[in-house]
Amino acid sequence: MPSNTLLEPNNVIPSWEFGDEEKKEVSGTLRKVRQKYDDIHKAVLAKDKELEALKKKLDQTKTEENVIEDANMKKTNGLKATGDGLENIAETHDFELMLQRTYKHMTNRMKKDLIST
User: Fold this and answer.
1) Band of the pLDDT at 13, cuts 50, 70, 90?
2) d(Cα 117, Cα 108) in Å, to the nearest integer?
3) pLDDT 10s digits, 22-54
4) Phi and psi, residue 3, nearest 5°
5) pTM of this prediction?
6) Dist CA 87 CA 81 (whole Å)
7) Rounded to 5 degrees, what angle do the CA atoms 23, 25, 31 make?
8) How sure is the predictor about 8, in pLDDT bands with cuts at 50, 70 and 90?
9) What residues contact residue 21 under an 8 Å CB cut-off, 6+ apart?
10) DSSP assignment of the chain
């Protein structure tokens, strides 16, 4: 009585002959790789969004810094101009005081000369 074994050439198992097991393994491996890629891609996109947000915040901070520096520069220039103006006023005041003293001295001298004559 002949018996059929798996090694017999007339035995055909479709999944073995046509590589269905290998296709399943390759498909499963590719699915895992694709999932891993998708996870990494999502992480990269999240990091890119975070980077863009940080860049926007940095630009905003730089703009604010420039505005503050301009305001400080205007105040500094205003203080310098005020200081220079104050010095000019003080010099003018001192000069006027000197003129007044000279005028008073001259009028007193004239009075003394008039009295002596």
Assistant:
1) low
2) 14
3) 778 888 899 999 999 999 999 999 999 999 999
4) -115, 145
5) 0.49
6) 10
7) 100
8) low
9) 15
10) -----TTSTT---HHHHTTHHHHHHHHHHHHHHHHHHHHHHHHHHHHHHHHHHHHHHHHHHHHHHHHHHHHHHHHHHHHHHHHHHHHHHHHHHHHHHHHHHHHHHHHHHHHHHHHH-
